[in-house]
Write a structure and sequence with these properties.
Elements (H helix, E strand, L loop, with lengths): L2 H21 L1 H4 L1 H21 L1 H5 L8 H27 L13 H25 L1 H11 L7 H24 L2 H5 L14 H32 L5
Helix pairs in contact: 1-3, 1-6, 5-6, 6-10, 8-10
Length: 230
């Protein structure tokens, strides 16, 4: 694997871990939440710099259904990240406390809730769109000589079971309330076991990855069937 590819993969892994950490605000406290949030935004910028060719080619080539879907999702991820960063700076009591910002707390709190919950789902969907590429990178790092059909079937079944659990976690965690801002406050259970919390969020991430992965396959199929331009 090329060094740049390894750095890209490493940055994405740290971003995913930071995302999960940030969703568990009640376990780690406000100061840690702010520092990890700032670090994630730095990683997000690094991710775009490392994928500079994507930006250079935005106006080149034909826009297939897959390319349109990817672009729309990327724009939404960018919007959610900016929403979290702007609102996080306004709400900050540690990392950005030196900035002369006053007021706007109520607006920032609403924006942070929207950015956090939409951002979690959108970034998870983004991972799913690139899941084939991620698996390809992992295979280069951990080469497997023989493919076992039975093992592949077990892994596939496990993926669908995780996705099913993710649907239940989506309802249990009341995502609809926060995605559509039906409450201006997030109700946190400080006594909850960390492992149960993160199992739910990993399952939610798995659900989004599965939906996006198979959605990407459908888009590629539609792109192949689309008539070519004269």
């Amino acid at each position: 694997m090329k060094p740049k590819t390894a750095v890209k993969l490493l940055a994405d892994v740290f971003m995913t871990l930071a995302l999960l950490f940030l969703m568990g605000y009640q376990f780690w406290g406000e100061m840690a939440h702010e520092w990890v949030g700032a670090g994630m935004f730095v990683l997000f910028i690094a991710h775009h710099l490392l994928n500079g060719n994507w930006h250079k080619n935005l106006l080149k080539g034909r826009y297939t259904p897959m390319r349109i879907l990817t672009l729309c999702l990327d724009i939404l991820v960018l919007a959610s990240m900016l929403a979290q960063m702007v609102s996080g700076i306004i709400l900050s009591r540690y990392v950005f406390d030196f900035l002369p910002i006053s007021g706007g707390m109520a607006f920032a709190r609403r924006l942070h809730i929207l950015g956090a919950y939409w951002g979690f789902l959108l970034i998870s969907l983004h991972l799913g769109l690139h899941w084939s590429m991620i698996l390809g990178m992992l295979k280069k790092l951990f080469p497997i000589q023989h493919t076992n059909k039975a093992l592949s079937a077990v892994v596939s079944a496990a993926g669908w079971l995780i996705a099913g659990y993710g649907v239940w976690a989506f309802v249990k965690r009341d995502f609809f309330t926060y995605l559509f801002l039906r409450s201006e406050f997030v109700f946190l259970d400080y006594s909850e076991a960390k492992i149960l919390f993160y199992l739910d969020y990993l399952a939610l991430m798995g659900l989004c990855i599965l939906l996006a992965h198979y959605g990407a396959k459908l888009c590629r199929h539609l792109g192949k069937k689309a008539p070519s331009q004269p």
